[in-house]
Amino acid sequence: MVNLTIDGKQVTVSKTATIYEAACEAGVHIPVLCYAKKLMPYGACRVCLVEVEQMKGRLIPACTTPVTEGMVVTSTSDEIVKVRKTVLEFLLVNHVVDCPVCDKGGECDLQDLTYEYEVVSNRFEGEKFDLPTDEVNPLIERNMNRCVLCGKCARVCDEIVGYGSYSFINRGFETKIATAFDRGLNCEFCGQCVSMCPVGAILPRPFKFKARPWQLKEIDSVCGYCGNGCTVTLGTKDNKVETIRFNDKTGVNDGNLCVRGRFGYSFINSEDRLTKPLIRENGSLVETSWDKALARVADGLKQSGSETGIVTGARLTNEELFLLRNVAKALGSENIDHSGGECYKGLTEGLQQTLGLQASTATFPQVENCDAILSIRSDFYETHPVFGMVVNQAVRRNDAKLTVIADKRGKFTKLPEAKTLLHKPGLEVNLINAMCRVLLDEGLAKTERLSGVDELKAALADYAPETVAETTGVSVDAIRTAARELAAAENAAILLAYGLPYTAASKELGIAAANLSLLTGIAGRTGSGLYVCGEKNNSQGAIDLAVMPGATGLGAQQMLSAAAQGQLKALYVVGEDMVSSYPDRKAVELALDKVPFLVVQDLFLSPTAQMADVVLPAASFAEKDGTFTNAERRIQRVRAAVPSPGDARTDFNILSDVLSAFGAQAPATAAEAFAQLTADTAAYQGISLDMLGAQGYVWGTDILTPITRNLVAVAGSKPLDAAHQLLVGSALYHSGTMSTHAKGPMAVVSEPYIEFGREDAKALNVAEGDLVKLSADGEIIEAKAKVDNRLPQGVLFAPYHFSALGLNKIYRGQPAIAVQVGK
Amino acid sequence: MFKEFAKGLSITLKHLLPGNKTTVDYPKQRLEIAPRFRGLHRLVPAQNREKCVACYLCPTVCPAKCITVESAENSKGEKYPKVYEIDLLRCIFCGFCVEACPVEAIEMTGAYELANYKREDFNFNKERLLKN
Question: Fewest beta carbons within 10 Å, which of A170, A583, A590, B112?
């Protein structure tokens, strides 16, 4: 620790702090333009100049100068003010003063400083910038005439996102921020640059001319897309969510968001939202009143009783999931499940068998300090982009060694020094088994306290690195190095995402990952962690609250087959578009068709809802109070920001009414439900709403110690023998099917596509944008081709978000689908 | 005492003489209005559009909250007021809107005969304000 004096105030800070950080600590205000807490010090703007007693003779930039013992700093003097004023005058020589029409006006750092330092005239003359502006891009609007060259956009894109869209081009007065060859933006569209820009040079296009910052009401909530659980601050005006505000005070995402979080909010205001309950009369759905719809639901469910199946998406709040479980109880049914039923078995069954847990063992911020990181599937970045940004920081700032077990290249494989174990589709388990074998063979495994070592050794006889290398197409050395690095690292992380498009061998993969985490000692060790992350915003909450089939109950897939055989009397689907997103569409459609009574509760009239007997219009995350539990077990508050459109009601209210119809007691408020559910859930014992502060509350503390340490042998699979294999997965710009109703993600990826590698495209004579047909098992899907260099030869990829593609007609949960390509 | 009384009364009588009238014969006769008089508002037109750029400073500064602005983007990509309304029944004619305007798009005219028959007629929309 270092002691110094700033403006007469004594302050003690860590020796790595800068003068600016020390001043913040001491409560002394030093103006800045180019400084951002999460970025490396840069010193571009020279607004933060201060005087230091020990360095007399010149002014010192506070944001880049480290503190030293006994430093005496003066933050304001006549000279400093004069210099700062001059700096501002210089900036205002070229900066176009179009504050009246600039959307940054009111929260612009340059505007605030100009006001603070009373820069009312300019001693210098020069030409105002007259650069072309980018107003074509649907998400990010760039007007470099307003740029102050602080470099924050270039730095955030490089340091945090790891994309590197921007850099300074030209020299001297001509210097400006631009993309490669000064072309249009073609990036991840995460909008981090938008959130960092201190002036109006980079702005969110969807928010253009919508409101002034001071007119917006800000509500802190949690993003409703992926399991990352980023906190978002909704900016609302006239009961409409207009934008997502920058906020790095809450949560653990440091204000970082991805394209979905920052630009995917517009589904809340979508015209397609359901506003009235619908009821099937004479074969078609007609609008009705809540009383009638609820009466019909109560009637139907009373008749089906214990033969009711309840399936939910993991997008509901914990409180709503709790009520839903109570509905199942009231019905006497144990058939309750969420999202896919199969896809999260790695977590619920795999980790349960090995670690005795059903959750990730550590928290996200720890990954930044990891020395080695293993990502299973390159798609981890696609499903959890903001967690991916933490991985990027670990790699870039702390030289973490990243290994990616991948069937296709992706963002992770492009990170500096990242090693990619590019394998044939569906062989992840084989590779992890081989890594376990390397650890055991070379004596690197930390086998003390583990049970099942000998059994595992025996089972891994077939997984010698050489054998696996041959089957998977990965080099032996790469497997060995990956295993050694993971074992040698003091802090290490294993990442695995699960979701609806990744149902294949879910349990086996979970067990294999857990085995590896046990052998390397990662599970339960401080600073290290096994991260098994759910695709949806509250996947972890649904597992914690045991929204899973009871001892004699049916899982989602079993319910569907039972329904298809006429053994299920009713199905209650809450917040899930099964027809569009579940594997095997035909089976789902058959089940929904056969089931005598189908209730769907959703935001949109999805293909699933179109088959329902009763459709109940529900509310989005921006319209309700409650809590979400993210993939690192962090329970965070969700707050209502806007009223629901029309007669739509929150799932909480709907489920309360359903419960009352059965004469069961429903908690009156979300807070009351939270109190009940914490008392009812072992892991949540003793947690109250007051404990969920700005950073939420991580149940089971930051490091979750495994309850059991069992190694379980799992068999890998065999490579598929087909010339063309289709992989199913998530696209970065979308999450589930919900984002296809949001303008932001749709502006980037508006329609389904089939991705080809360059070689395949050439061999098949397929060009970008061509309409291609894939046939498998007599089913044909058709979409535009996208040509990229991510995919190895013979491998194709299609995202699962778009219902129109009908991908799940051929996707039945296989790791890869053998397809015929035609035009 | 009588002296003072006569003195005072003489001032009064002086005012009764022609040419000393302070009132005018309204509406036949009207007063000349000072250039800084704050009457009915006027939106200043520019070429093909209004000068106003919908910066929201006038509704922000307005103490009576009588100004409604809704901004939008026109075909040229410029910011313009899709809606600009002043509720004259709430306006206190303080002139802050004129003072706040960064582009001198709003002025106050000398019009003070603002009586009307219907409430709606006191609501001045963009078109009416531009005509003033």
Answer: A170
